[in-house]
Amino acid sequence: MPDATDHADVILFAAEHLRRGGLVAFPTETVYGLGADALNPGAVARVFAAKGRPSNNPLIVHVDGPAMAQPLVERWTADARKLAEAFWPGPLSIVLPKHACVPDSVTGGGPNVALRCPDHELARALIRATGRPLVGPSANKSGFVSPTAAEHVMREFAGAVLLPAGGGTFAPPATVPLDTVLVLDGGACARGIESTVVKPPAAIGDRVVVLRQGYVSADQIASVLGRSVDVAPPAAADSASAIAQTHLDSPGLLDRHYAPRTPAFRFTAAQWPEVLELLLDLLAALQPADGAEARACVLTLGSRSVPSPHARVAMPTDPRQYAARLYAALREADDEKLSAILIETPPSNADPLWAAIADRVRRATVTLPSAD
Ligand code: AMP
Ligand code: MG
Prior knowledge:
alpha/beta, Rossmann fold, 2 domains, 5-stranded parallel sheet, 16 strands, globular, binds adenosine monophosphate, binds magnesium ion
């Protein structure tokens, strides 16, 4: 991981852009975030515009530690303190009733704000240098695959300017418009999937709810808080082939997330014998208009052979490595201009990280027509 002290001039330049209300994408241990001053409504509006994000989808606010978090909430509860002590810096976002100083646009109009302290030295150095909490939604167009490398971010936003993290002298550009995205290059993200989002009780009788699964598991949270934890149900089932059709016809209409641009389908290991047959049917339906050969890429977990002209990507069988690799693999497959991407559903076993990964795969795909 780059040492922030090697990049003091780059960080000061980025912090100045943020203080003026500009946008700076920054690395975290999960994915790259699109940073802006969380207390500046104009800067927050630029984030929604750059991402094309629906205004009711709240943004996570990034802080450099509990001291910066406390003024942003009505009450820094005992549960929040315990969670921050146990998991910060790290991939856990804590949802609490917001203080009036947090603009309504940050919380999508809702009463609660999600707070997180990233486990990445460059991210925390940027927050400290700016002296402000930073909103940091994933630095990608809304609904598509989250970026896990600076190059991914550069390709999302036209006119983005890379701020190298390799040390050496830095020659800042003369003027930077506020809607230009500066991209702080911190290499590849170690974790690779978004943070766990947890809502501890705000009132007596409330339960602890994990709103989004991630690296920090519900069991870990339960043991820190000494009480049971609910996990919000996964995204609505989408097994109907009608939805597959929507996915192909007008991707923007589907309530989806983390999705590649290429039509993407998931299948279970047990389905493998029928997958190739399905693949043929599917590809016949997806034949490119120019008469070119339809090709698919299959992301598998086991050792499977995929007939030409289709491609296979062998995904890691360790969940940590799988999580770190998933989004880059989806982007690489997207770049191949294929007719379809097929993803083997991750196993459900003792490691809770697989559940978080399966959630991302589920949202990125629809089931194969005969699946589930
Ligand atoms: P992203 O920044 O793209 O990773 O998305 C942030 C996600 O965190 C949102 O889509 C919500 O699922 C969750 N989130 C952020 N803020 C809140 C909040 N105030 N209340 C509940 N969930 C939140
Ligand atoms: Mg996102």
